[in-house]
Specification:
Elements: E1 4-8, H1 28-35, H2 43-46, E2 48-49, E3 55-58, H3 69-82, E4 92-94
Parallel strand pairs: 1-3, 1-4
Antiparallel strand pairs: 2-3
């Protein structure tokens, strides 16, 4: 099979829910708020393996009514780049 990474960019964080067997997962922004800084976040904290061995990450967004949802996507993508999530063996990355 192909090696696939899906990065959910919906502030509701439900883009990967079906692939993860209807389980919600912590988003990058949820964990950043919990830990206080993105520097304390590990890839394993937000990356989950789902159906067909597809890797799933949800960017999340700011608290409702505060800030811009795009900031969550940018934070998540920068974090994934810094943590080496975009490995050369990936066949597809979907956003």
């Amino acid at each position: 099979g192909k090696k696939i990474l899906i990065i959910g960019c919906d502030p509701k964080a439900d883009s990967t829910r079906l692939i993860l067997h209807a389980k919600a997962q912590d988003t990058v922004m949820d964990k950043v708020r919990e830990l206080g800084t993105v520097e304390d976040l590990e890839l394993e904290d937000v990356c989950r393996r789902g159906y067909g061995d597809v890797m799933c990450v949800e960017s999340g967004g700011p608290e409702p009514g505060v800030g811009c949802a795009g900031r969550g996507v940018i934070t998540a993508i920068n974090f994934l780049e810094e943590e080496g999530a975009y490995t050369p063996d990936l066949d597809f990355v979907f956003y």
